[in-house]
Amino acid sequence: MSHPPETSRQSVTMPDTFPVVTEGLSADTSRLSDEERDRGSRQALLAQLPARAAAALVVGVVQLAILYALPGRGDVLQLAGVTAVYLVLVVLCAALVRARAQVGSTAVTAVLALDLAFVFIVTAVSTSPAHYERALFGTMIVIHVANFYFGRRQAWRVVVMGFIGYIVLTLAASARGLPVDRVEEIWTLGIGLLGTLLIVAQAGHVRRRLHTIVTLFERAEQGDFSHTYDEEGDQRHDAITRVGRAYNRVRTQLASMVLSDSLTGCLNRRGFEQALAREISRASRAGTELALLVLDLDHFKMVNDTHGHPAGDEVLRAAGRLLLQTARVGDIVARVGGEEFAVLLPTTGVDGGLHFASRLCDLVRAHPFSIAAHAPPIRVTTSIGVAAVAPRNTRESGGDGAVLARHADMALYAAKRTGRDRARQWDPELDIMPRTSGAPDVGDMIPLGLA
User: Fold this and answer.
1) pLDDT digits 0-9 by tens, 18-37
2) Which domain holds residue 127?
């Protein structure tokens, strides 16, 4: 497929050359890997164990003070013993967690079960059956900790263990001959279950949405701005929604700063690699052609040595502007090295790419490059390598971007070796041509091959 004629081309701005995919990242993003989850569980447990010990100590001291002030409400020695045993087990858990690099879900469940056991035993030895709902309040606290720090699966385990524990607590009281109003206990259990379900559902939703925000920023840290926060799918309109909207507002500006070259206004190398991978994938799905041009300004080192690096910057700035003005909307222009540029031409075959490359050689050769306010303009030429992937190749091999980049590099090398100021397309014979005679100057070539 040939490249469109000159009349169909227009000035291209940075966002047009690199359109950011507007795919929304919903709250149901991919789960953490088991290894990441286990490392996070270890960190959370280490941070929580001192708080567990402090909370148990406070509960034990307060309850002991109540028992001393109001005798007959419970067994002081049993309460003191339960609190002491729990504190010892918390210290042992801390030592075991510190000795491991990761903590699996079974260990986390065991720690949460220990918390529940403390809640129910303290309730049994220090409270009458009329106030057993305190055990449900304690259970809800453990459920909240499990859901927020360890995920919904652990929270549901605590729900099951907690409500089994409450049933055992009331049955044990009844077996000891203590007064238990079973109807009231059933109502208490039902209301507690309903409240727990609401807590787990709400907290789980918040946790997933927070993970979505974290994932967006982690991808942004790697230079990937292809996803947005799914505002339409988020109807909560709370603080998390406002953070997601703020990210969407600054995403384009962040992408421009991270993925563009400040000197020329083109994409930088990172932006180009992302664009190449995206266009290769798009061509593979659609079965269309894709051409890649790699340009190198000839003898650019002489420009810097003769006129100075500020003059060289002016030449690069003008070359980038010329490429952006010549490209069409949808073409991708990048500066991938010192004086090396790359242009991706979607839906364009090797013939159209070679035609466009020849036209670029003419435009650069004819362009007066201004280097200073009162200095005469200079003339620069460019060498261009052209390679393309055909529809059958993109379907069969996935259109390997590294292969396309290597072929364009080899064609550029051939253009320089055969005299510069010209365009060459890749052909299989270039793979076996020796790279000795007529080699370009050191610094002329900046390999574009991708890892």
Assistant:
1) 333 334 444 444 445 677 77
2) 34-220
